[in-house]
Fold:
Amino acid sequence: MYLKIWEALSISENTVRTRVNRLLDEGVLEISARVDPEAIQGHRAVMVGVKLKTMHLVKKGEEFSKLKGVVSVSVVTGRYDLILVVLLNAGFDLLEFYTKEISKIEDVQSVETFVVYKGYNLKVPYIL
Structure:
């Protein structure tokens, strides 16, 4: 990785390594792998719109972000308060997500599920 950056910027590999490490230490940069859910047998991404009974949207967003399968949570405007991206597989399906995970969160007024049939540039961290 450092070699490619070094070659592209024409600076020393050590300089690149030092700068990257500083950005990592400061929390500005995070290096992670992401997968295409469609490329993994038995996996599926869904998006879930959540309407809450409370206006503590950031607090609730943090709670949802800790649920199994949730790869991202966004506080949004419009019809929903939160939009979740959830990664499911054969051992962890939508019913289990709702009955074992969503049920842990208080003040959920309603949810609506959007199954992703085909995604473009949809890459998610593999956390299951």
